[in-house]
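Dear colleague,

Following up on yesterday's call, I've attached the two folding results inline so they're easy to grep. Please treat them as preliminary; we haven't cross-checked anything against experimental data yet. The first protein's sequence and structure tokens come first.
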Amino acid sequence: MINLKDIITAQERLRGLVLHTPLIYSQTLNRLAHREIFLKLENLQITGSFKLRGSLNKIKSLAAAGPVTGVVAASAGNHAQGVAYAAWQLGIPATIVMPQWASISKQLATEGYGGQVIRQGPDLATALAQAQELAQTGLTLIHPFDDPEIIAGQGTMGLEILEALPTLDSVVVAVGGGGLASGIAVALKESKPQVRVIGVQAAEVPAARAALDAGQPVSVAAASTLADGINVTRLGEHTFPLLQRYLDELVLVSEAQIAEALLLLLERKKVLAEGAGAVSVAALLGPLKDCDLGNQVVVVISGGNIDIPLVGRVLQWGLIHSQRCLILRVVLPDIPGALGTLSTLLGQLSANILHIYHDRRSPDLPLDQTRVQIDLETRGPKHCQQITEALTKAGYAVESK
């Protein structure tokens, strides 16, 4: 089991090779959460996530011990990029096995760092099994989380947080396989035991929750989640006892909460996070909203490698769930001016029309009627209610979506 000394050694090994990422105060989250909130922006790290820390620490220690002919890793993307970059820095060939659902942008980025990508299986466990087979050919396996030197490397972030904010009360951090959360927990708990460490996991793949409830690592069903970077179906044998010992609390967040957190970070803080990087904010505004976290809370934004085509879909989803976007269907008489009258009323209600879809062909419509779907930008739930009530009062039969 690693300790604080291991993390300090890793910090020295990584000095000058990884970025000391910023810790910034968030006025927006302070207002929403009613406490001082600081964001640890690890999405600004080289390769776009915290994974570089563990990968570099592991591969540098291997290289120091003797020649390394090649490394192999299994990853959904962030560990892949960390391993590929670290291996490239040291002139070592890297082979990366990625699940079939791994984002295209992460595959391309991994290849851009010199890694050879192999797509294998429906989940990370299958990809890891393939990587373990390749390790039998003479390659050195770099595990994504279940390795003491990987954990120690990730733990260097905890030392950075404590250095930047020695008076902190709590840290909120994502949990996938547990490498980041356990590393940060060791660094903080063995330096300042009173600091609370709260883990966050996607409710769709609650491997850490299942392990803590069972008292040992257990497998959960694979599922799709916006937080693909923490889509891990089983905790590691090294990470589990550290989380069991040091984690103060573990909470789960829904897909809708993750989408809303992504939207908030981008709109209010101009921070582009991936789903796994935003779960900490989702927890802060969701299950942790009324919890006693103390006055100064650090929220770890663990990565920013979101698939670009996904950004638009996630933001639209977030707008709908936060009721910043309202989709209405209204049946109108099929006569000149009917749509103009409706549009005028919506303008008077300060609703911004984004799209209008006109449907005259539905078999359930009388020949003298037409149905329109209108996508509106609104100011939030109260505004949505005002719009719906005003349209109903004006005689429109409103169907909200």
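Below is the second protein, in the same order (sequence, then structure):
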Amino acid sequence: MALAIRRWRRAGMTRRWRRAGLLGWCALGLLLGWAAGLAWFIRVADRAESAPPRADGIVALTGGAERVETALRLLSAGRAEWLLVSGIGPGPDLAVLARRSGVDAAALTPRVELGRQATSTRGNATETAAWVRSKGIHSLIVVTAWYHMPRAMTELARAMPGVALYPAPVEPEGSHAPGLATARLLAEEYTKYLAARLDLTALRAERPPVPARGAHAG
């Protein structure tokens, strides 16, 4: 009887070790797949892109340096007729943004709208889609940080399947600097990109925007 109990215990322990080993190999496989995907993501996101000579509109997705400034310069240079600055929040008005960009605010005011409702990339896409429909836009230059571009293009393409999208990435200072901060930024962005590709961002409720003083320009 004691021998049978010992054999039963050994068999149970073997089964547990096998299950643990299988789970460990699965976790390792997932980790290696995620790491390979991250390497692909960095290569694709860092690919040099140039915006077309002209499109119907430009959208700048706020949340980082140089995005709005770049979009305003493109508009001033005649690259499009209209500009939406999506997710700007209750902060600076167009005059302030134009001064930072070195462009003439008075000349651009009728052609610029400051979207203050979006609080996420998916919200940017929803806000942009409504603006695109209101303007009859069929082609759009997308301005955002290079590492954010794959996720932005995914959300925008889903929200506006009939609109041609042209990336115009900007490179925030230090975003290519080697180090832990850059690695963490890219890892987080890749994980968010996967969520966008799987449409998991639909499960997250959009945060309400902070009340703005002055709704928009344009």
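For the second protein, one point worth flagging: Confidence is low (pLDDT under 50) at residues 212-218.

Best wishes,
A.L.
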